[in-house]
Design brief:
By secondary structure, the protein is an alpha+beta fold.
Length: about 130
Amino acid sequence: MTHATDLGRETSPTPTLVAWFAIMDSDDPDRVLGMIADDFRMSIQFSTGGGNAAEFVGDRAGLVGYLQQREKSVLVHEVLAGARVGDVELALGRTTRNGAFEASFNTSAQLDESGLVRRLLICRTPEISFAH
């Protein structure tokens, strides 16, 4: 199976999400702030397993808060499958830490007419893994 991240930004069905996660995996994840629209809203449901979870919500300030608390350059995101429906990119993926499975995630991003992210929903859990 070809993964969306194997295809690259130009050929992936989810080029915005591929770029988003590439930036999140970099030494400068704050660059994603340049990818959001003025009316950006987000919810990130973040489970660490065993029923322990946190939700990060808000607008640009909420994303800044999320970015400030997360580890930098530790996790690698891999989009396993993706699709675009209208102005929405959808992705199923996984994160690894030092090559070992850490968590699975689903992401939905609604884009504006210029390709900026207006709405972002990310749900993440280590409790389930999708074979790739």
